[in-house]
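Quick start: what a row looks like.
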Amino acid sequence: MLCAEPPIVYTVDIETAAVTGTESGLALRLENGDDRCQGRVEVLYRDSGTVCDDGWDTNDANAVCRQLGCGWAVSAPTNAWFGQGSGQTVLDDVSCSGHESLSCHHSGWLLPMCRHSEDAGVICSGGRRITQAPSGVGTTHRRTESDLGLRLVNGDNRCQGRVEVLYRGSWGTVCDDGWDTNDANVVCRQLGCGWAVSAPTNARFGQGSGQIVLDDVSCSGQESYLWSCRHSGWLSHNCGHSEDAGVICSGRESDLALRLVNGGNRCQGRVEVLYGGSWGTVCDDGWDTNDANVVCRQLGCGWAVSAPTNARFGQGSGQIVLDDVSCSGQESYLWSCRHRGWLSHNCGHHEDAGVICSGGPQDHSSTFWGTESDLALRLVNGGDRCQGRVEVLYRGSWGTVCDDYWDTNDANVVCRQLGCGWAVSAPTNAWFGQGSGQIVLDDVSCSGQESYLWSCRHRGWLSHNCGHHEDAGVICSAVTNSSTPWPGTESDLALRLVNGGDRCQGRVEVLYRGSWGTVCDDYWDTNDANVVCRQLGCGWAVSAPTNAWFGQGSGQIVLDDVSCSGQESYLWSCRHRGWLSHNCGHHEDAGVICSAVTNSSTPWPGTESDLALRLVNGGDRCQGRVEVLYRGSWGTVCDDYWDTNDANVVCRQLGCGWAVSAPTNAWFGQGSGQIVLDDVSCSGQESYLWSCRHRGWLSHNCGHHEDAGVICSGGLQDHSSTFWGTESDLALRLVDGGDRCQGRVEVLYRGSWGTVCDDSWDTNDANVVCRQLGCGWAVSAPTNAWFAAVLNSTHRPASQYQSTARPDVGLRLVNSNTSHRCAGRVEVYHSGTWGTVCDDSWDLRDAEVVCRQLECGYAVSALGGAYFGAGSGPITLDNVECSGTESMLWQCRNTGWFFHNCNHHEDAAVICSGRYTTTPCCELPEGEAWRQPLSVSPGGHTVLHKGLCSLHHWQFHFVLTVGYSCGGFLSQPSGQFSSPLYPGNYPNNARCTWDIEVHNNYHVTVVFRDVQLENGCNYDYIEVFDGPYHSSPLIARICNGMSGSFTSSSNFMAVRFISDGSITRKGFHAEYYSSPSNDSAKLLCLQNYMQAVVSRRYLQSLGYVARDLIIPGWSGSYQCQSQITPSEVIFTIPYLGCGTVKQVDNDTITYSNFLKAAVSSGIIKRKKDLNIHISCRMLQDTWVDTMYIANDTIEFKEIQYGNFDVNISFYTSSSFSYPVTSSPYYVDLNQELYLQAELRHPDASLALFVDTCVTSPYYSDFTSLTYDLIRSGCVKDETYRSYSQPSPRIVRFKFNSYHFLNRFPSVYLKCKMVVCRAYDYSSRCYRGCVVRSKRELGSYQEKVDVILGPVQLQAPEKRSLGRGSPSDLTAHRVPAP
């Protein structure tokens, strides 16, 4: 049997040789076009050859155009558009990103399987427009737009109908495979018919005749012509005319109109749209300020102040024209936004949307400002109207704009608004002189697409922290006075490289204001150098030398902090610090070496002629200490950040295969001479080691005891060597795990079994082990000798926890209460002494590493400011930055041993969750003796005070759990969990719940492998539930000695573990994974409707066709009919329509319906009726999506879970009229704060209740340091007050900021909301304060959690809040804890 070898991916670089490395080896040209910038693509490779058009697109064509200096790609013709070539087809399957100098992926040189009828072509923008077919092109090829036509037929007017294309003189249809509104939009725009309302399929406008011209059309929606979209090729299809595509366009804008009514003036009111000759309303589903902004701009009414819902301006009459409107905010017309379709909705007029625009009331005493007629913009003091200081007319006076965050995006908006082209520069620091009067705007942040400067995000009118020395300026491209000395015009700027031997290498100098100056090397890299090389026509950057490599310049330093993307046309177009603004000396002058350098004898870093690489002292040429020949002498490489990526580059450069290892710490002995490179950081793809990012030649902070080494796969041939050999000498096993697929990793090396250290050990490593042993994939990668260590190392004192790799290093936590080793100041033992860690950059990820290293569980808090008191001795580490997965703290990125800029008042500290101890330090209620409340004061004193700690005037609950982790919320596709303290004995009186929720339309399978509980099944046991445990059926009860697997019928499963107060044993370990459910039918319970999706293949297998499936009794309603696609039948069923039944049972609300496929009535039925039952069951806030199919003996069931959508915002006053827009929200110490929460759902019979609100200084931690405002409906803060509800779905409350901001200057607010039936006085929403008894520790709460903030204490120079849209201060929804 012959096996195909895996495909090999090559790259082609037209600017370097394929084999020899010389430019003469390859060339590129376009043949048989009207000029050199269009034609058939030909590459000179040993002889001239063509390129096959497989996968050919505009990205590939762009690379060709840019390389030839022909601009960009206008088109990428295929099928030998420019005639068939001759000779070889050189390349196939070319795949460019579009930014290469044609360094693109391809299938290999001279390997194509193509004919010349597939020769690729290119038309570049730098060429002349094609007016006729190129010479030699036959009639089989597509010509210009004049040969093609487009029309819609068989519709009510010219803007709807079946799509037909004129091709080769005949009209043909388009197949509907993949046809959508993006494609339809192109058709509508091309025909001048507005935009696409719908993209019907399945020959909705009748079947056409003749040829099917296009298939698999895939448009982005921005193309000018339908045939410019990606498609399968002319006349290439797999369709019949039953699949002819159609389009319904909106028609001309003159058929549509927009108005606001019932609001007192034309700029506020109920939104109404003129459609089909009648005015209709817009439903408020999903309605927000983005939608309202489009309305305001379209009507010339400024911007949106508010987007009221629930018929705020009264209920309209007539039709509801639009629903589910979703605008980006940049559209020109409301109907250009995404929506559900004209006249398609599931609303009533009580949901009519409204808008309040800034251009409404003209009374300046109003809290919001007026229309564009009240505002104006100008540029002053710049010589003409298109450059100068930015000034805005606001409330009758001109004021300036502060330059905080001012950039070219902001400047572009100014230029476009003034009709001055685009922004050339965005000067700051009062470049055009200081203004006078008020500073109107600050912190302006534009996307660059806004129509008005004041439409951009900003701090609020007249709110700033600036002086006039920070006035912003703008220079636009339409400046007429070219004699004005300003940065950016090419006529008075120039670039050169000097002192390098030729024009393509040297010190970078810029001509600015008539004098040449240098560029500082801060952040200088190859991206910047590439711009220089391209601008000078010198190819690409080989190197970006720093530290005045080409000698120090003189005169001014013109630019600093240059940061280019690499795509800019001019160096001064890159982001930089500003002209003549720097903090450098000429010893930091930047240089560049370009690829087009002609003087190869010049000694510069990067040419192979004066650089070389070798490995020494390793026994053969493919292993040893890394040495680089630099300026005639061999030197070593420092091992800072040295890893296998770097080693791979070395191995490949030396032809030694790949990297087996990257030894550090002078593994192959210390070198001598200079240390040439340091901080080497390779991606692994570089051709030369010196091409990798590094610190600079001869720049280092190392000694030879840190010399880097490499062991390559191409060495190691001598079996007497100290390194390992072939696979025949090696073996792998897992031991002490109960079976061959779990356990401690051991490797057979030189005849003996040995272990593997867990430094950096993770699931990637474990996956390799599992695959090598034929054991599937990795469920977990345990560390710390989980499967029993070879040497006993359990429970060492904290001061003895040391790295196995560095026996002279240790870690401990220090505090005044010695009984709590898992909380305290972090101290590291190094060089014979204990020292502290500075809190710069200290966060939970760093704390996580500390806790794991000390076997103290997980990180509860990462504290700074010498929280546990100031240490003494040295400060050992600073700027620690961990990913959180490291095994030891010193493996994290840091500034180096004993390098810091701190004092001991910045000592870092950690509070860990702790591990189980058999000696509780305090008495707690029965069943909770394993939980130990610990209150810690800033001075390091520990006070047991019923779990409540008093710090100054601020009280907060601070619980350190030194017991065990019990239960949790598991949301990954697979994972594991175990009883508390496993494999040690579990505690008494445990009540643990694990809630497992995976992706929609997946099932959960849990596998129990090792169950050791108290005998019998009445005392200690495990329960598995098919959903949330309190509302779902029990699948199984698992007792001592049992094992097996259990699968849910949904994407949710709950597992409970119960133990009594007597005997304890080892417990259990379980794994879970997810698998796709049956794809015959799916159900989604969305915010406004149910969506049922049934496979057509499934229906066909039962003898039905798609149109047989209906909602019984509602098949005549357009809203209740199905949408039929080539593969599915889709029903969109409103909760309050199409026969949906609502049932209420205690705290459960169920919406249900069913679908039916029936056979014709008669005496004899040859097939059975099909009934598909669907229901969305709501448990307070949790959607349970249920679907089953009953076909006599066939039953099919699907269940899914989801959540409600609750919006919460701060408001400026108790009127709740204007939401807060600033973020952070700056408030005074004693300020009243007002909040409103709203449930967004079409069912008006639901109610919302505030159960709990707490504050915390940490966005992701609401357990360590919290302050309760209200908990379980019980008010905890004396300033908390609720307001009357305008509707059951809206709650309003307030509180004072003093108690929490007095302790922490910045906090977040987290609230739990409960959803109930409105006016059901037995439900949770109407029971108020509930004093809860002891709860089980499951993580899944039947509530909606939202996080809001941050709220920050206002500094003296800060202003308070702004007003406008709530979108700026976001409420973050999170999974319930």
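That is the whole record. Residues 58-67 form the longest helix (10 residues). The mean pLDDT is 76.
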